[in-house]
Amino acid sequence: MTSGNELIPAASSRVRRRETANTATPDVAPVASRTAASATPRWSRRRGVLGVFAAFCALGFVAAYVGPTGAALAEAGDDAAVASVSIYGSSIDEAQSFVAASDEPDAAADTLDRGGYTVYVTPKPKPVVVAPKAAAASASRPMYTGGGSKTEWLLASGIAESDWAYVDYIVSKESGWNPNATNKSSGACGLVQALPCSKVPGNGYDPVDNLRWANGYAVGRYGSWAGAYAFWTAKHWW
């Protein structure tokens, strides 16, 4: 442990160091001022260099911006000059020029006649008149006027009496036993409405000739008058 007497010199030493530091303070200020004075010109030179560099950069930026813009404006001016030539403007040079008589006395006056013109109207075709369809009965087959009865006609035709009932039914439906019955649309004629009328040997309107033809037709097509009757009742024609 240190005695009190030993502490005193230490305290005095600290006092001396403080005094020494206080005495050294006046010398520090001149050094700092010299340092600041020497640094001021160097900082000014740096500012000058930076200013020159900034000005150079600004000029470069302006040149880079103005150059393309000027070229674009020049191209736009050329396009505008081309666009100013319209189709109408170019066609004027190729248009024909008419010389008025007042400008050249020897030249004939060019006149445009707008009032005199003709219009051709296609005539309407004449309507075609269709003649009414002539009856199928030929003029060479005159209507029957000989008279008689259906019994007389059946006997004269040679049809078996056992078939008379079938014949009577069909003839009644076809013509009502009228020898001169004629279908205006088809031309069928006579008692059994033979079609065409020209198939009947002799005269299709003669009742005996008509029944004779019908007898051969019924037997040849249906096998008998009974077969013809069955077909007619089923189809209402034969």
Could you please describe the fold and organization of this structure?
- The protein is mostly helical and 238 residues long.
- It has 6 helices and no strands.
- It has helices spanning 4-83, 87-94, 150-157, 164-174, 207-222, 225-235.
- 16% of the residues are buried.
- The model is unreliable at 1-8, 19-37 and 134-139 (pLDDT under 50).
Task: Describe the secondary structure blueprint for this structure.
Elements lengths: L3 H80 L3 H8 L55 H8 L6 H11 L32 H16 L2 H11 L3
Helix pairs in contact: 3-5, 4-6, 5-6
Order of helices and strands: HHHHHH
- Please tally the helical runs, counting DSSP H or I stretches of 4 or more residues: 6
Please give the share of residues in helix: 55-70%
Biggest sheet descriptor = none
The separation of the N and C termini measures 165 Å
Mean pLDDT: 72
Tally the beta strands.
Answer: 0
Strand content: under 5%
Shape: rod-shaped
Q: What is the radius of gyration?
A: 70 Å
Class from secondary-structure proportions = mainly alpha
Parts with pLDDT < 50 across at least 5 consecutive residues: 1-8, 19-37, 134-139
